[in-house]
Amino acid sequence: MIRRAPLSARILPAFLTLSLMLGAPLQAAEPAPRPAGNDERSLVREANRVLEEEIKLAAGAQIYLLLDLSARSLLIKGRGIELHHIEVLSWDAAGNEESWGGAYRLRTRPVVERPKVRPVPGKEQSQELAEPINLNDMPAEYLLQFDPGLLVNVGPPVGEHPWLWARNRLREAWRRLSTWTIRSGNAPPPWLVLRLTLSQDQARSLAWSVTDGMPLLIGSATAP
Amino acid sequence: MAHLARTMAAAIACAGSLTLAASHGGELPETGTPSASRDLPGKRSGESLDALRARQAALKRQLAQLAPEGHYIVVDTAHNKLLVKRRDDTILDAIASTGSGTILDAPGKPGTRWVFDTPRGEFKVQSRLTNPVWVKPDWAFLEEGLGVPTDPAQRLEPGTLGDYALGFGKGYFIHGTLYRRLLGKNVTHGCIRLSDEDLRTVYRLSKIGTSVIIF
Asked: Which residues in chain A are closer than 8 Å to B143, comparing Cβ atoms?
């Protein structure tokens, strides 16, 4: 008598395999600690580039992100001040790394279900909570689409949350595939895809803090 | 009458002017911040290392000069904290309450809604009030299932905002609260609440023009 494995046990490997296949193109990209050459002059020049861009952003009132892949840190900053530090556990990328210069802008922050206040006569909302949103309501895996041409894929470590990780890979693959199809068979979009592995708490914290139109800089502002 | 005039002078709407249609999924907002430039690497390829380092030092100074002078306020809406800082030093680390993120639809007005978020970005203290009186906005009545009064005097509610209020624009204030047990939670309509003691310190350390950086 042949006993069949439970449905979930059969689906999971297929799901993970599909996710890996769809996400495979990025695996070919060997993460480089710096986007440019490694000689000292290149590093200082790169730091100057990032500083020049940051000065433009810090002159305004908007909060911005500074992603330093070599330091594995994602900083939330305003007026040049570090407001919050997010540790990047790991990352990989695909695309033209030479085009990392300049500021990117986030199209929309991750969607969160906002509870509606139901008016109740005689009930003061300031006394009784109307199911407010808190950090735990934010997603731990999501895609952030920036202009021009940057897709940042935020997800948890595969070992900690395999289902979330797999869903994340599928979502990314679907986004890339659908965009490619929309471009009616021309060359794939010149997107840089950047995968960031963050802890669940940090991923939620980032999802909370980003806002529509928020600028992102990629690079290191520190030089040896 | 004179008493009413004095009361009105210190009265605040407390985020009551906030009326938004939607907060997500809209068009990319136009901002005044600069656009990208992607031609910098290689542009000064002939520069010596010393010249590059000198330029870096100048850039760092330039960036540092953009930081607020004197005391400034940092609000972390994710963790409901308010800090008063001076350069890198933290002068006050306070538990706050910030926006709940909830939505209230205006009854009988499809498409009109209030989104109770604390705004993000850098703001400036625009007003410093003592013994503020809350001028209850429309949503405060609507969410209690009440009609909006026609008599402005019926909107005044003294004593609910604490001893001080610091306005940072568009009806948003840093103020006190009667509900200390809710400090540390996202429960407000967009304003930032503090305990009486922390509010007193923030009031004392701030002035008109003090930066309020919210993320």
From this structure: 117, 119, 125, 130
| Chain B residue with the nearest C-alpha to that of A136 | B78
Minimal-distance CA residue of chain A relative to B44: A45
Mean pLDDT for B139-143 is 91
Q: Under an 8 A CB cutoff, do A109 and B33 touch?
A: no
Return d(Cα B76, Cα A202) in angstroms, integer: 14
Picking from A97, A100, A96, the residue whose alpha carbon sits closest to that of residue A49 is A100
CA contacts within 13 A on the Cβ side of B137: 19
Q: State which residues form the domain around A195.
A: 37-107+134-218
**Which structural domains are found in chain B, ordered by start?**
2-20+70-214 (2.40.440.10)
pLDDT digits (tens, 9 = 90+) for A127-157: 554 678 889 999 999 999 999 989 999 998 8
> What CATH number does residue A179 fall under?
2.40.440
Query: pLDDT class for B17, splitting at 50, 70, 90?
Result: very low
Decide if A173 is inside a domain: yes
- How many residues in chain A? 224
Determine, for residues A117 and B103 on separate chains, whether the beta-carbon distance falls below 8 Å. yes
Look at residue A6 and tell me if it is in a domain: no
Q: Which residues of B touch A76 (CB under 8 A)?
A: 215
| Banded model confidence at residue A122, pLDDT cuts 50, 70, 90 | low
Facing residues of A87 across strands?
Answer: A73
Kindly report the nearest CA distance between residue A17 and chain B, in angstroms: 32
Are A76 and B215 an interchain contact pair (Cβ–Cβ within 8 Å)?
yes
Structural domains in chain A (count):
1
In a domain, A47, yes or no: yes
Poorest-confidence range of A56-65, A115-124, B147-156?
A: A115-124
Contact yes or no for B145 and A208 at CB 8 A: no
Whether the pLDDT of residue B43 is over 60: the answer is no
Measured between beta carbons, the chain A residues lying within 8 angstroms of B142 are 119
* Residues 6+ positions from B211 with CB-CB distance below 8 Å: A79, B68, B72, B73, B122, B123, B124
Three-state DSSP at A146 gives: strand
- The residue behind tokens 């963050």 is A198
